[in-house]
Specification:
It contains two helices and four strands; from the N terminus they run E-H-E-E-H-E. The chain has helices at about 15-30, 70-80, and strands spanning about 1-10, 35-50, 55-65, 85-90. Strands 2-3-1-4 form a four-stranded antiparallel β-sheet, covered by helices on one side.
Length: about 90
Amino acid sequence: MRNYEVILVVHPELDETAFKGVVEKVSGWITSAGGSVDKVDVWGRRRLAYIIRKQREGQYVYLQTQMPPTFTSELERNLRFLEPVLRFIVTVVE
């Protein structure tokens, strides 16, 4: 198991329940792969540096996780196809 940070930029017009559903779905993917989500920090709505999919703002979420290194490619693939997620990044914490 390695430590990872996952940062998501979610569509700004989602209501609270849909937003929490996206966060829970991503957390569920990580835990079902044998990992764990240690910390979830919602940074809130912020202005983007440039327009993404006609949006000027996004809701930011920070996840501190532990997961197997083999799962990162599958997580990135799942996040790419999750429509409310505008951008994401998965990084290793040393």
